[in-house]
Amino acid sequence: MTQAKPFRLADYLGHILEAIERCHDYVQDLDEVGFLADRKTQDAVIRTFEVIGEASNNIRKQYPEFVADHPEIPFGQAIGMRNVLSHGYFLVDLEAVWATIHRDLSSLHEAVKTALDSLSK
To answer: Is 2 inside a domain boundary?
Structure first.
């Protein structure tokens, strides 16, 4: 297997945006009780968090100056959550996942979108 060519910064930011949008789509018709009862949606949501964390980690490794210039984007937290979800897969705190969706993802989307838009200028 050959190593994949790294993506551009704009690609990684786009991956984060798409993952957030998918996550919101997955839970749009659910309340917390419904989410906690729906394993397929839980798995789909966790996958979006993994994508956000992986893209954030790639940005941190390949574009450290961008990370330093954008402290409003919590790359470290995204990477940390990805690690918890990936490595503690049967110990996932689904209430915390639900809270993160509703507390943090919209502001993350806005910050990433603003940063991506500024790359185009």
So the answer is: no
Q: Which domain holds residue 23?
A: 9-119
Question: Does some domain include residue 88?
Answer: yes
Our count of domains for the chain comes to 1
Per residue in 81-103, pLDDT (tens digit) is: 999 999 886 789 999 999 999 99
Contacts of 12 (CB under 8 A, 6+ apart): 55, 56, 58, 59, 63
- The answer to whether residue 1 sits within a structural domain is no
112 CB contacts (<8 Å, ≥6 apart)? 13, 16, 17, 20, 73
- For 62-85, b/e burial (b = at least 16 CB within 10 A) is ebeebbeebeebbbeebbebbebb
pTM for this entry: 0.92
Q: Is the pLDDT of residue 69 over 60?
A: yes
The answer to whether residue 93 is domain-embedded is yes
61: its two tokens: 């490794």
pLDDT band with cut points at 50, 70 and 90 for residue 33: very high
- Could you give the residue numbers annotated as active site? 82, 87
